[in-house]
Each structure stands twice: as structure tokens, then as C-alpha cells.
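Chain X:
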Amino acid sequence: MSSFGPVSAVHPWPKVVALLLDDRHPCEGILIKILLLAANPRDTGPLRLGEETRKIEEKIRESSAAQRFSVRSAWAVTIDELLYQLNSFEPNVVHFIGHGGADQIVLETTTGTSQPLTKEALSTIFSHFRQWLQVVVLNACYSAAQAEKLAEQADAVIGMTDQVSDAAAIEFSAAFYRALGFGRSVEAAFAQGVGMLKVDGLPDADVPKLIHRRGVDPAKLVLAGASDAAMSIRRAEDPRVPAKLRQHLQNGCEFLLLSEKSVRVPEQHSAEENRIFLELGMRQSNAVFVIEVNRLSTVGEAATVLAQRLLPTDYHWYSWTLVKHEALATKLSLAMAGLRSGDHVMLVGNHRMPEWAPSRRSR
């Protein structure tokens, strides 16, 4: 699902639902980013980091959708490097190779010694990248507890319930990413990874554990990349989204997310508690949109998000009014306007550029 381009005089409004008007797979052409993080401090036992990384890259390269993947590797990862990679790459999949403990994974210091990172700290770091994260793999001993915590931040997380050998970690990863590369679901890919351990007679087959975010079905979770399509797929499984809007998303409805910069959250409330999901319609179009906004954001901010999507270069030449039953002031918060999740909201606009405004002549 691609973003709408500038409105033209010939076709002034966007197609109603991009997925329904396109026979291609909804994820086709979208780049999926996999970030491989490796850490093996000099005061820990040696691991075959290079072999696991090579196997993952090889299986992705040999898959049917290899051109849709971008794989980046980072070695001797420190906390600073972890943050740099997450910020600069915006990965959809994060795969950690290294040592772990009951409540931590082990990164490195700048001098190469161990730097433990607790599950709480790891979850806090990953919480800032939820918009892109779909899958996290912690291929480290005793990482299941960390995986449980990270399931709050990603759609699916894989951790290890016990010690895991180098051989098992490598074989599991190879089978898992080969399956993902051929478009299999996360659950199917996980099953193939476990299956390979059993076929090879390795004693670690019951060690990997798949955990998923509440509302996500891993059997339906297929990598979608950092896109509105990916967000739509995720929201279509989110029980916080009203059933009617989930159906819109499953049908390919365009999904919009209000910029975090516009969100004002009181200290006593979490961002999740303040999220609402609205159905947006337009007076001069049959288009339907689902928008995720903060209830304390202003009506004007919500209208601007849609304007920016439809008119990315000239939206400032278009004035909008967001209405439910009557016109609302642009500075009024959504909460004060009485809007709740699932409400249908109509957007009406005032054309200031007649050269691209929709024609009002009758046919």
C-alpha cells in the first residue's frame, strides 16, 4: 500500500482502497529490513557469530523474495551501537546473536568486556521503535524471559528457555529465515526452525519459544516491511481497534498514524490509554481511512494528517474542517469534541487552488 501522491487535475482524489484496486500481493515491492546484532565479549565463551550471520544472509539471498530484503550486520555491539542501528536502519526484524542470562542479554563495552542489558532496559529501548518492529529473535541462552517482556513492543518474539548450543542456534536461524524469505508466516517459519533441530537430532528442539503480542495471530503474521500496509495488518489484529475498523483494515483500508510530535500525554496516563481509532470519510470522495490518534490532539492536527497524505506538497493551500455532527473548531481536542474510538468523522475542505480542485460541474 503506497502513499498517495499529489492530487492532479485529471484524477483529483485518491483511489478508494489501494489494496482492493491492485491485484499484487499487498506487501509486494515493500522493503523488509533485517538487523543482525552480534556480541561476544572477550570475557565470555567464544561463539560462531560469523557462521550464523552467513547462514541467515545465505538463506535470504536464496529465497524467492530476496530482492525485498535488506540485511544489515553489526558486530561487537555496545548499547550506543544498538541505539544507532535502531535509529538509522529502522528494522522490521531484529536478530540478536550472543550470550544471555535469566534476566539479561550481554552486549559489549567499548573495551570489549561484558555489558549486561536487563529485560526492562531492553524493552524500554525497543519501545521507541514499535512502529517498525514486527519480529525480534533473541538467539541467546535463557532469553525467554526477555522475549516475554519484548512482546509488548513487537508482534512476535523468539527466545530460548534454556541453554542453546552453537549448532542448534545456527540451524534454527537458517531454517527460520529461509521460510520467511519464501513468504511463510512467523509461526510456520518457527515450526520449520524447530523441525530442523529435530531432523538433525539436536537435543535443543524444545528450547526455542515463540511469544506474540496480544491480539496478534502468528499464523497470519507475514513480514510486511515499514509501511502503512504493515501498520494496517498489525492494527487489523489489535483488539483495541473497534471491530468495524478492523474489518476496514483487513479489506485494505488506508491507515494513518498521527505524528508522535503532536501527541500530548498527561504523566498519569500512558500513550496506549490515550489512543483512539477513528473512521474518516470525505465529503467529495468515497475514500475511507482509519486514523490512529491521541484523544488529546487537536481536531486541526488530525485533519492536517489527512491533508498531508492526500496533498503532500500543497496541503497548506487547503483548509479543512473536521465534523461529526457539526463543525468543530480546529483548536478543540478530540476528547473535548466528544470523539471516541470507532466514531465516523467527515472531513470537508475549502478549495483555494481551482486549477486542481475537483470539478463541481454536473455530468
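Chain Y:
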Amino acid sequence: MNDHVRKRPEGAAMDRRRFLTAAAATGIAAAAGLAASEGPARAAAAPRPAAAGAFRVPAEDVRHTRTWMAFPDSGSIWGGKLSGVQSDIALIARTIAKYEPVHLCANSASAARARSLAGPTVTVITSIPVDDCWMRDSGPVFRTDGAGGLDAVGLNFNGWGGKQTHARDALVAGRIAAYAGVPFTAAGVVGEGGAVEQDGAGTLMATRSSLVNRNRNPGLSQAQVEAALRTAYGASEVIWFDGVAGQDITDDHVDATSRFLAPGRAVVQMPLATDTDAYAEDARRQYQVLSAATAADGTRMAVERIQGPDYGKIRSTNRDFLASYANYYLCNGAVITAHFGDTRADAAARATLARLYPDRVIEQLNIDRLGTGGGGIHCVTQQQPVR
């Protein structure tokens, strides 16, 4: 799950997905009991020593075996928004399935609805229970060694610092690794996939506000968090952004603002000049930091821009809405992104992505219901690369 780049009235609360946090108190209290009741499943996916060799998280644009997603069914989390969010998840899954296989994890009680909405091209499985739909954060981070080896790392998902129920989602990474039949290792850091971007060649981007935070990693310094990230991702360089702490449930994830295009190349979603909220200022700082940064091989970063929309012209009037073109997902042969109703900005974003990814089809979807939860397409997907 991911946040960001939102324009709100001055003084308005900026709790991303505020309506979800009401479930946190009871959900987190129940988490320990549920996790304990699922002890055998946890044991089956227990962390094992990392496989030998130079394992590294590849860039997202490599070929995928499949995409992993999750189908939400919790009324206590989503309330009256649930049906629309389910429809948006199914739309994303169906669209990706045009290009590569999709495995959609659903609870048994909602599997029939998931299959009905997603259609026959999407594989719905019930052996991996879920709390919510944010597979980027709860799912495993797959790694390859360039010689046919594949394993997975779990980032010890803790509900974005204990803000939401996550007993099932805390087990998703290990269970998917077990399903895929690959070794699974727990990282030495607590975090989420949306908080880290990788270029596949040794460089990461990450936000301090999310990862160097006592609600994830109490007592760990930035240097210690960085060392754990480098080990987990097989990287040697981390480009840090300050981020925005305490303003949304994720404490500001990077993947709705800055993305790698290739080793030494990145793109940042830029706000309008008139946008002055915390996320707009953070986006400008991210652009400045990236423009002065070097990649793992010592080359200066080349930074592109993608213009964000005018929040006064988008369809949604929800103040927690995420309108991020940068929160796109790369699947085999396509870029899956969103449009928001600012027709000029939507068209310009499509053109920019077509220029940046000339060999891929650009698919723009209306996922406004999901966006009211403060997330986007990248937030709800997790790639499994080809070995």
C-alpha cells in the first residue's frame, strides 16, 4: 500500500485511509491470537537461510512468471467502500492477465465473488488467507541469482507500524514463497515493498519516514536499517528521501512519487507549482535529491518528470484520494497505470509513459474506488520474476 502526492485543504487531516484505522484497535488486539491459531502454517513457511550465490531483487521490468494480488473482503476495514474496491482489484487483475498470469489470493468466503468479478483469465486461490489487498507491502520480495536460482525475502510486515489488523497479511509473504516452492528468508528489517524501489543493479530508493521509524524498527539507526535493506535486496547503495512521517498510514512510501526506469535513470511525479502541502514539497525534494545522487556504479542519476494532475479537476472529491501516475505497474509487455479525470494531465501522463516505455502497451484504468483508500495499482501488485 502506498500514499502520497495529494493536495488537500489547508489544515485538513491527512491520515491516509483514515476510515481504515478505526479497525486497527480491535484488529491488532486479535492479531496475536489469530497468528497463534495458524501456527502450523507459519511453521511451514518458516524463514530458511538465504540461498548461496549473489541473490538480488531484479528490476520490475524483467520478465515475470506471474503477478500476485489479494482480494479484500473485510467490511470492518473498508466499510461501504468494499464492493467498489473489490471491483477495482478485479479490473486490475483482468487487465494484467492479458499480459501474464495473475494469482489472486482470496479468503474462502469471498472466493466465489472474486472469481465472478475477475473472470476466467485470473487464477483465484484460497490457500493463502488475507486481511486486505496491499500485496506490494504484505507479499514476498522475490530475488534471482542470474543462474536460474529464485528465492524470496519477507519484510516482516507489521501493519504499517501497527496501524491496521494484519495477522493474516503478516503470513502472506512466507505462504506465497511456500506456494511458489522457493526458499524464504526474513529480512533483518521491518518494512513494506512500497517503501523501497530497486533498479536491479545495486541501487535502492527509500523513505526515512517509513523505515527509520520506531513503529517499524525501534532502536535501529539509519545505518543499521540501510545495511539490512542492502542485504535483503542484494544492493550496495541506498538513496534516502526524508519522506513525510505521521501524515498517512504508510508514513510516506516512495513508489507513488519516485520510480526507477533503469540503472542510473529515474522518474519523479511532480506537483503543480501551486501545490504546497507536505507531499508536494516532499516530491520536489525527492527530485532534487535524485538529481544530485549517483547510482551504485558511480554514474550520476538522470531524472525524468511526470506531471501530476490538478486535484481540482479529477473525478474524486475524497480528500484522502491518491492520484499517482507514478504508481504504475510493469508487467510483461505493458504499463498498467491510472487516469483520474483531469483529461489534459491524464493524456500527458500517458504520453510520458509511452515515451519512457516505447516497447510496452500503456493501459490506463479508472480505479477511483481503490484510490479513495490512498492506494494505487503498484500498491496492490507483486511480481514474481522468471528465474
